[in-house]
Design brief:
Structural class: alpha/beta
Number of helices: 23
Distance between the termini: 55 Å
Strand order of the largest sheet: 5-6-9-8-7-10
Largest sheet: 6 strands, antiparallel, barrel
Length: about 725
């Protein structure tokens, strides 16, 4: 852009557009010039973004052309859900299982179906996509899908959202100025604010164009009232009718502080514009369509300050702050004593803003910053106060030096201590009594809760924030004014019922959790129990009173006596019999108790909704899983046998020929399902069964089993190797 000598040189500015992907304007330009730039961008298929920061007010405008294609409108993982039923209607109506949450779809989305049971195979094509019309949080229609001729409703199936490109149409800057249309909300407590700011900025632009593109001076109420008069002339929506003092206050404040450029506002708008540039270049995420307005007028007094309070000196780096907040507030910023906990991405951003605002840069001010971590290379992409030369240095000390390089007047003390109960000798009464407030830049809830309690105790304000990818949150906590951080918490993660894990899994998470639990019990807990028995002088006393005493000693006997291998061949045989028990015998018993065609007392099929009817697996060395194309039967034997061998200190092997030879000679006992076997079909039944087992007198049986075990002295030096899941 070296060939541009003036921002009024329209031809030179327009020449810069050719070959660009996105044009961003962040300085005040005349309306006619902005319209010309936008029109040239539209003609050249270039995205146009205009942003302006004026005091505590700001705006962003986006025009990505008449047909901008978005490949992924929200960046979220595709929504998935399970079918409860699909009605035989026209159009077909789908209801998802409510206990697994809302379907998360919107009208116009597309989905695929898999493993649908019913509807005469209408939805059997796993690759076919269907358009959705949402009718409720758990229901939707399939557009143009007629299921009225099907003989039975669908009772099972899986639904997966298909991310399809979306085309957005943007209006030009000129058209959006005249008719802003629907404006994006930045604060739902100010639902009437966006159209008012749209009017105010139009009036401010009109004022600037009649004053050689100069905005009103801070505190110049004559100029501010001139902007207000222009706004009233442009007010076609009657926003200022009936002597609306609240609306007039906003316009007067915007005018008075319009020359001020505040660091926090630049950071906020810069972050938003940066995201819009990424959207323009990548086609991912939904862009702002038209105008977006943001303000923080809560920081401002009821009426604009006098010119004496806000007049710039021309020599102070804090003139913009003074122009908006006045000299008295600026002095308070200089004298603040703040504790910043964390020097990561948020901590760096806070320090940068504070250095530019003058926080703790006065004689009475001081910032305390602590972070235990050292800088790693991966931090450099988002923690911008650090450089390659800072790797392995402490974050707090490096961030403090970087902030002082921005503003040498900043008084800052770095620490490398954790904030917690163990460091209250450092961060105690004397420390907190000198503070003005605390700012958290933490990465875990536990630390936030501790700091929250400290702030409540010492009656200090706490500034809390966090990020997760492109998402973020902030919370300002003021004792006795707002709720504290710990007052509300996320609900605990929903645990998976025991009966679901053991007998009725219907999601991949259930099978994963079952496998993890089985691994822990078979290859870790059993070995630890044996080692505890062999190493404890009085093992019986150590487990006395435990509700799982009988279960524990039975596990020890099984591991140490009944199923103790002496060779790797024994491990292979054990693995083969385990396969039969887990994937054939138990399934056959389950289907014996609950046949595939069983109907409940209400007349519905037992195996419907979230209950998926299983099938017993017949062992086959060459069988492949239809989904992953893996030899699951053979792989299970190899893995289980080697894990078992590892636990007993036996050398394992993986050659297929050996396994084939051993498995041919394994005698698998016949299995016949039995009457009277109780299988819990609900979580309540599972808990009742556990309570009944716990109430049964088991000490005598457990003691008898303990007596029958080999004495620890007979197995001197013997020790099992518990295997941690990794």
């Amino acid at each position: 852009a070296s060939q541009v000598s003036s921002l009024k040189d329209e031809a030179a500015l327009l020449n810069l557009i050719q070959g660009a992907s996105c044009v961003v304007v962040t300085v005040p330009l005349s309306t006619s010039l902005l319209c010309a730039i936008d029109e040239k961008c539209r003609a050249s298929n270039v995205c146009f973004i205009y942003s302006l920061s004026t005091g505590v007010f700001g705006k962003v405008f986006c025009d990505f052309g008449e047909s901008f294609v978005i490949s992924d409108k929200d960046g979220e993982n595709p929504a998935t859900s399970q079918v409860e039923n699909i009605l035989t209607s026209n159009p077909a109506v789908v209801k998802v299982l409510e206990d697994q949450g809302r379907h998360g779809l919107e009208t116009g989305d597309h989905v695929t179906f898999s493993r649908v049971k019913g509807l005469d195979g209408l939805l059997s094509d796993n690759k076919a996509t269907y358009e959705v019309k949402v009718t409720g949080p758990f229901t939707f229609e399939l557009v143009n899908v007629d299921a009225s001729q099907c003989s039975e409703v669908a009772s099972q199936g899986y639904i997966t959202q298909v991310k399809t490109p979306v085309t957005m149409s943007f209006r030009s800057y000129r058209a959006a100025l005249a008719d802003h249309g629907e404006l994006m909300m930045s604060d739902f407590a100010k639902f009437d604010r966006p159209p008012l700011l749209h009017l105010a900025y139009r009036a401010l632009a009109s004022y600037a164009e009649s004053h050689d593109m100069e905005y009103p001076m801070p505190g110049d109420m004559t100029a501010a009232n001139e902007v207000l008069t222009l706004a009233k002339k442009l007010d076609t929506e009657n926003l200022l009718e009936a002597d609306n003092k609240a609306a007039e206050r906003i316009i007067l404040h915007l005018s008075s502080g319009s020359r001020a450029i505040l660091s926090p506002m630049c950071a906020t708008l810069g972050g938003i514009v940066g995201q819009e540039v990424l959207k323009a270049c990548s086609g991912k995420f939904t862009p702002i369509n038209g105008f977006f307005y943001f303000d923080a007028d809560e920081c401002l007094p009821d009426s604009p300050l006098s010119s004496g309070d806000v007049s710039p000196t021309g020599t102070s780096r804090y003139d913009s702050n003074v122009a908006v907040f006045g000299k008295e507030i600026q002095q308070k910023l200089l004298d603040l004593n703040y504790f910043l906990i964390g020097a990561g991405a948020i901590g760096c951003e806070m320090l940068k803003n504070w250095a530019l605002m003058g926080v703790a840069c006065g004689e009475k001010g001081k910032i305390h910053i602590t972070d235990m971590d050292r800088i790693e290379k991966s931090n450099l992409s988002r923690q911008f106060l650090f450089r390659n030369s800072d790797i392995n240095e402490f974050k707090s000390a490096t961030a403090a030096r970087a902030a002082q390089a921005m503003n040498p007047s900043m008084n800052i003390v770095p620490y490398q201590e954790k904030v917690g109960a163990e460091t209250e000798d450092i961060f105690g009464d004397d420390f907190y009594d000198k503070l003005s407030g605390v700012c958290t830049a933490l990465d875990n809830v536990e630390a936030r809760l501790y700091v929250d309690q400290r702030c409540l105790f010492y009656r200090l304000p706490m500034l809390e924030s966090g990020t997760l990818g492109t998402k973020g949150n902030t919370q300002v906590v003021i004792p006795n004014v707002t709720e504290n951080y710990g007052a509300t918490r996320d609900p605990p993660e929903k645990s998976i019922p025991v009966c679901t894990l053991k007998n009725f899994p219907n999601q991949i998470q259930h099978t994963l959790q079952w496998a993890r639990d089985y691994f822990e019990g078979e290859f870790k807990q059993s070995a630890e129990d044996v080692n505890a028995y062999l190493s404890s002088p009085d093992y019986a006393a150590s487990i006395s009173g435990q509700s799982t005493k009988l279960e524990t000693v039975m596990s020890i006997r099984k591991t140490l006596v009944d199923e103790r291998p002496t060779s790797f061949e024994d491990c292979v045989v054990w693995a083969r019999l385990k396969f039969e028990t887990l994937f054939n015998n138990q399934i056959r018993q389950l289907l014996f108790n609950f046949p595939e065609d069983q109907v409940t007392s209400s007349g519905t099929k037992f195996w419907s909704g979230s209950k998926r009817c299983p099938k017993a697996l017949a062992f086959d060395l060459n069988d492949k899983c239809e989904d992953a194309q893996m030899r699951n039967h053979f792989d299970f034997i190899v893995a289980a046998a080697n894990l078992r061998a590892n636990m007993f200190g036996i050398k394992g092997r993986t050659d297929e020929k050996y396994f084939v030879e051993v498995l041919q000679n394994v005698i698998v006992p016949d299995f016949t399902p039995k009457d009277g076997v109780k299988i819990a079909s609900t979580d309540a039944e599972a808990k009742e069964s556990e309570n009944n087992q716990a109430a049964a007198p088991a000490d005598m049986d457990a003691d008898q089993i303990l007596e029958s075990l080999p004495k620890p002295g007979e197995l001197a030096g013997f020790k099992l190797c518990p295997i941690d899941f990794d």
